[in-house]
Amino acid sequence: MALLEIKDLHVEVSGKEIIKGLSISLELGKINALMGPNGSGKSTFANTLMGHPNYKITKGKIIFNGEDITGLEPDVRAKKGLFLSFQYPREIAGVTLTNFLKTAFNSIKEEKLSIIEFRKRLKEKMELLQMDSKFLDRYLNEGFSGGEKKRAEILQLMVLDPKLAILDETDSGLDIDALRTVSEGVNHFMKKDKCILIITHYKRILEYIKPDKLFIMINGKIALQGSGDLVDQLEKKGYEWIEQDQ
Questions:
Q1: Does any domain span residue 128?
Q2: Can you give the residue range of the structural domain that contains 229?
Q3: What's this model's pTM, rounded to 2 decimal places?
Q4: Domains of the chain: total
């Protein structure tokens, strides 16, 4: 079953068209990877899926879980089960990691937990991500290293438990140990009723999180798609062999 259907999507940013007729289908229970050269529109696509107001849809539809969500606000999309892990997570002074996650959880979930119950749940998930519990009382991402910020993003993913997880270059800036730990968190999240879209430039994260399908984006469109093994061809040949056929 297709969880996400994108049909002939066109998107402008500041009057310039970046997405130029993109169509894609993502199925439940599948891990998908999206790759492409710089400037191809990958992050624009991710932000458009979440309803960022700076990204204007001029044509096409976004169908999520059988519903047209093209015109919905970001908070409504989040409540319906979409999640975006940012490439550059922001620092929020004065807001602890615990309070941030509890507020986000309460805003989209019917289940209400006491602060004691919630902290207990957080600690269980933090152990998997090898995060010290002292981070619970630190301000969100303030003074965090790159790896700590990405761990906090995956902690958020595991707590909010969305249907579709969009991971925008989660592997950027991670050393080998942090990459392995973050990947374990993502794999732990993945279930038959979930779907993941990993946006990346590099093969290395795909060695830990094995994609069922790989999409190659060139100039605002999906230029090629295939199994996860397609990444090996890409590693050897680069993007030129695809661009020549466009």
A1: no
A2: 2-90+164-243
A3: 0.92
A4: 1
Q: What is the pLDDT of residues 119-169, one digit of tens each?
A: 998 999 999 999 999 999 999 999 998 889 999 999 999 999 999 999 999
What whole-number distance in Å separates Cα of residue 217 and Cα of residue 11?
14
CATH number for the domain harbouring residue 60 = 3.40.50.300
Strand partners, 56: 12
115-122 long-range Cβ contacts below 8 angstroms, 24+ apart? 121/159, 122/98, 122/155, 122/159
Task: Please write the tens of the pLDDT for every residue from 59-95.
Answer: 999 999 999 999 999 999 999 999 999 888 888 999 9
Q: Are 47 and 19 in contact (CB under 8 A)?
A: no
Measure Cα distances from 181 to 86, 101, 152 in Å.
17, 20, 12
For 20, half-sphere exposure in the C-beta direction (CA atoms, 13 angstrom radius) is 12
DSSP annotation of 246:
-
For residue 113, being part of any structural domain is answered with no
Q: How far is CA 135 from CA 65, 92, 122, 143, in A?
A: 35, 14, 11, 11
- Tokens 């779907």 identify what position? 195
* Positions of E strands within the chain: 2-13, 16-27, 31-35, 56-64, 67-68, 82-85, 92-96, 139-140, 164-168, 195-199, 213-218, 221-226
Give the count of beta carbons closer than 10 Å to the beta carbon of residue 11: 22
Burial (CB < 10 A; 0-12, 13-18, 19+), residue 126, is: buried
